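Priority: low. Protein: DUF4255 domain-containing protein. Input follows.
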Amino acid sequence: MGDYTVIADVGASLVKLLREQMTPEPIPQPELIGLASPADKGDLYLSLFLYNIMESGDNRQTHMIARGTDAIQFPPMTVDLHYLLTAHSTAELQSRVVDEHRILGRAMQVLYDNSVLRGTTLVGTLADQGEEVRVVMDTLTGETMTRMWNFSDLPFRLSIGYVVGPVRIDSTRIKTTKRVTERDFRIQG
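Result:
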């Protein structure tokens, strides 16, 4: 479970992993991998764009969480985060597409080999709570990708979708309760 910052922590964890595994080959410097819209990518070679957040009904928790002897906390909200990874090569036109394919191929390889993020890969509240999140490629259709790229005047670029979750965001609602402190058993014969 995590605080409201957990969404940012997931993005930072993904960037950290990709920076550690993709530099200096095929991306020369870690700072060239980051969180950004493909339209606002700046000088990034690989951008990760959080384009959708959906509640994860399959992982929804319904049980209250005990907080001491006189309080219970409502269960966390469970969400899946949908990312778009896009390569942006600065190579000459003749080799740009091949360079972007190499970048995306390595990103896919890294995320496949690290399909469960845990331990030192995680940052922030995810690391503090010892959480684990899965990283799964999202099979986006060509039509869906084309619709997503209609947000700007940029030409379509090859991109890959990933779903990361379950991510749990703690509830701030706490209810005071009275615990059972004594029992009365009577046996009648």
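The domain at 6-176 is CATH 3.30.2000 (STM4215-like). The first helix runs from residue 6 to 22.
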